[in-house]
Amino acid sequence: MARMGGQRRLKRLAAPRFWPILRKEYKWTVKPRPGPHPMERSLPLLIIVRDVLGYAQTAREARKLINEGHFKIDGKVRKDYKFPVGFMDVLEIVDTGEAYRFLPYPVKFFKLHPIKGEEVRLKPVRIENKTTVKGGHIQLNLHDGRNILIRVKDPTNPVEDVYKTMGTLLITVPEQEIKMYLPFQKGNLAIIIGGRNVGRVGRIVEVKPGWGRKRTLVTLEDAEGNLFQTTLNYVFVIGSDKPVISLPEGAWK
Q1: DSSP string computed for 41-86
Q2: How far is 232 from 238, CA to CA, in rounded Å?
Q3: Which of 161, 185, 170, 176 is nearest to 240 (CA)?
Q4: I need a labelling partner for 178 at 20 to 30 A (CA). Which of 95, 120, 147, 160 fits?
Q5: Over the stretch 115-146, which tens digit does the pLDDT of each residue have?
């Protein structure tokens, strides 16, 4: 039984370093349920409600609020306090109308960035993989666990398939209607979702192919003309001439 309990729970000292929790006062914290985002790039909904937003003082209070349906993720009410919230997810507080996007942020790794208006219904998603399914249709596998089917009229000439891996779709949530496609290419804007440059925004200026995404180097130029490098797996395209979503002040001018 002890071994099973260890699998269900997570020691605070073993939690990702960016989690905003006290690590020495208590032994255990909530372990995110397997879902759309890996643990190292997400926060359980309970920790957001209690430790980030401050809507509860204790885990019991946070679980109660979540179970009552006060919070939406990407347009859907989530009642699972272990639900993992990750990059580009939209969090809404039903009663107040507040909305936030989970964005990468320098040093701190993440930031709940306030958004409003039509942006609440929009979400950028990165294409991680694509496959051909029965009937010659194209299935796009996205960074948040979604799959979107692109139907083609003629499998021998799939003109509808303009999408490539590492490109970004701007979709509506929760409907998943594609509003825009932003390919991964030189000149486009991207935000960095990991590594020492996490949260920085720049324009892609050079790509040095390597063996896999972790060894392919991408050079970007920020708004002040400074060059910086990261690996391909950390690059998330968010615009062409300008970002398609709002960003924290000073991220891109």
Answers
A1: GEEEHHHIIIIIS-S-SSHHHHHHHHHTT-EEETTEE---TTPEEE
A2: 14
A3: 185
A4: 95
A5: 999 999 999 999 999 999 998 999 999 999 99
